[in-house]
Amino acid sequence: MSLLVDVFEARSDNYGYLVHDTATRCTAAIDAPEFDAIQTALDRRGWTLTDVFITHHHTDHVEAIAPLKRAYGVTVTGPQQEADKIKGMDVLVSNGDAVRLGETRFDVIATPGHTLGHVVFYDAANGHLFAADALFSLGVGRMLEGTAGPMWEGLKAIRNLPDETLVYCGHEYTVSNAKFALSVDPNNELLRARAAEVDRLRERGAFTIPVTLGQEKEINPFLRADTLEMAKAMGLDGSNAADVFAALRKAKDVS
After folding, report:
1. What cofactor does this chain's UniProt record say it requires (predicted)?
2. What is the CATH number of the domain that holds 214?
């Protein structure tokens, strides 16, 4: 089986994704940020939309559900915990469930924190993780609904995936994330190299994703909340990882 991924811009700073199962020609949009952007990507590729996989209830990820259903008759799959907040879902999923797009299997991983019911979709066979607003390159989503403990546990579940996994996040926030990461981890040479690469990419209008999860494990401060370096950076030597994570997120919120 093989999965093709098309990356495109949507709204002001969203990333949009089409995933295409080559064996069956089934195509899904990961989230539904903007109808026109999705339709343009479909037309460019010559693909027909069959499914939409939703990660969480925020407007910039669900706004196009209704017009996509009208235009393509798609099946919409999304988080059971947010069923009361997302109109138009046909299939409800929770942590540990799996969904199929043709011959491609996506595992559902709960990542509460940005929203309480946030989920991500992981294609193990092809090594793709669609992380939406749970994990960004060099950052994580704002903790808008959840608390630090469960959000950290969700991120650890992501961190346990193979290093070669390609991470596709929900927004282009990498430049600002890099500045914050450098402020708390200035001596990390791998981080400094990535920050320079990000600047070069954005200067020419290129995307900063996908990025390998292995790289993020080395340079994303939020994935390293259980390290001595991050505890010291937050002045929390000896504290548990969830407390360090909470301090990092609070510091980023005001940076």
Report:
1. Zn(2+)
2. 3.60.15.10
